[in-house]
Design a protein that fits this description.
The chain is α+β, with helices and mostly antiparallel strands and 179 residues long. The protein has a single domain (25-154), classed as PAS domain (Beta-Lactamase, 2-Layer Sandwich). It has seven helices and five strands, in the order H-E-H-H-E-H-H-H-E-E-E-H. It has a five-stranded antiparallel beta sheet with strand order 2-1-5-4-3. The chain is elongated, with a radius of gyration of 17 Å. 31% of the residues are buried.
Length: 179
């Protein structure tokens, strides 16, 4: 079954998935499947939070699709194909896992199915990032949550300087005699 996702601009369904606060060109986007953790989400939304609910939720939330910006942010070393079909816990940074888990619960439990939270990230690439999560308003795809990180880019030179530095470091490590 093909799921219409908002991650490709050429799809007409794109506009129906996007809340007004998310501008497509600015961010990184994911579509995730919550079917296996729907009961856990309902429990957390009702106030019952098992000790390890964040780990359980993220381990059971599977990535259906991700755009190139999402891959660049969290999956650059493994690539898009290795990100798809994987749980969010496989690539989401540890320091942001509580917030994304809480956002998924809020997006599923909210009426209407839209929620926005700010994620404060110290980054050379992102400035004033906003993490957003939502479901379709029309009730289609009830087991799919859409996530985005939208931010203003910092001076492009800093990004390229960081990438160049990373490439030099990786090249150096690769050529060390004991590597």
């Amino acid at each position: 079954m093909e799921v219409p996702l908002p991650l490709r601009d050429d799809r007409p369904e794109f506009a129906t998935h996007h809340p007004r606060h998310v501008r497509r060109a600015d961010g990184a986007y994911w579509a995730v499947d919550i079917a296996s953790v729907r009961q856990l989400i309902a429990s957390v939304a009702a106030g019952y939070r098992p000790v390890n609910w964040v780990e359980m939720l993220l381990a059971g939330t599977v990535t259906l699709d991700a755009d190139s910006n999402a891959v660049h942010l969290f999956g650059a070393y493994a690539g898009r194909d290795r990100m798809l079909g994987q749980p969010i816990s496989a690539y989401w940074p540890r320091e942001g896992r509580n917030m994304v888990a809480d956002l998924i619960v809020t997006a599923v439990a909210a009426e209407p199915h839209r929620s926005i939270r700010k994620l404060r990230v110290k980054s050379l690439v992102l400035q004033n990032p906003v993490l957003a999560g939502w479901q379709r308003d029309d009730g289609d795809l009830p087991d799919t949550v859409f996530l985005s990180i939208v931010a203003e880019p910092v001076d492009d030179r800093s990004f390229w300087l960081l990438r160049t530095s990373e490439e030099r470091y990786n090249n150096l490590i690769h050529h060390l005699p004991f590597a």
